Structures are given as structure tokens and as C-alpha cells.
UniProtKB/TrEMBL annotation:
Keywords: Lyase. This is Urocanate hydratase. InterPro entries: Urocanase-like, Urocanase_C, Urocanase_CS, Urocanase_sf. It comes from Acinetobacter baumannii. PROSITE patterns: UROCANASE. Its EC number is 4.2.1.49. GO terms for molecular function: urocanate hydratase activity.
């Protein structure tokens, strides 16, 4: 997190992009859980969908809206909007 804070520009929310290979995703999730449990991180952590697997960026107002690949119905945007607006 310290390295991300130093190297990645502010993106509007206190958020960071994290590109993690398949073999490290479970380890990273467990590390996040431990950081929350220990109190090292107190803010909510939201992990959105994997843009590398979908082959595109996720944006409700751009090229991924109403994609015919079946992902529109399971898009994470309604979930993220609910988390950020409630």
C-alpha cells in the first residue's frame, strides 16, 4: 500500500488500481482480511471485477455498457454504486 501511495496518482476516491496475477489473488484477499482484522486498515476495501479477464474496462457510460458478452447482467456497477452511495 505504501508503494501504491507513492507511485499511483489520486483517482478521485482514495482508491488504487491493483493488477494481480491469478496465483496471487487469494493471497492478497487473505492479506486484506488480516489487515482489517488487526486494525491496520480501518476503511472499507472494495474489490471490483477483474478487467483483465473481461478484456475491457468497466464503465457504465462507455464501451462496456450493454455488452453482448453476458457480463452486463452481472456487472459490478450497481453493487459499487450502492456501496458508495449508502
Amino acid at each position: 500500500l505504501d508503494m501504491a501511495r507513492e507511485r499511483i496518482s489520486f483517482q478521485g476516491l482514495p482508491a488504487r488500481i491493483c493488477w494481480v496475477g491469478l496465483e496471487w489473488r487469494q493471497k492478497l484477499g487473505l492479506a486484506f482480511n488480516e489487515m482489517v482484522r488487526s486494525g491496520e486498515v480501518s476503511a472499507p476495501i472494495v474489490i471490483g471485477r477483474d478487467h483483465l479477464d473481461s478484456g475491457s474496462v468497466a464503465s457504465p457510460n462507455r464501451e462496456t455498457e450493454a455488452m453482448r458478452d453476458g457480463s452486463d447482467a452481472v456487472s459490478d456497477w450497481p453493487l459499487l454504486n450502492a456501496l458508495l452511495n449508502t
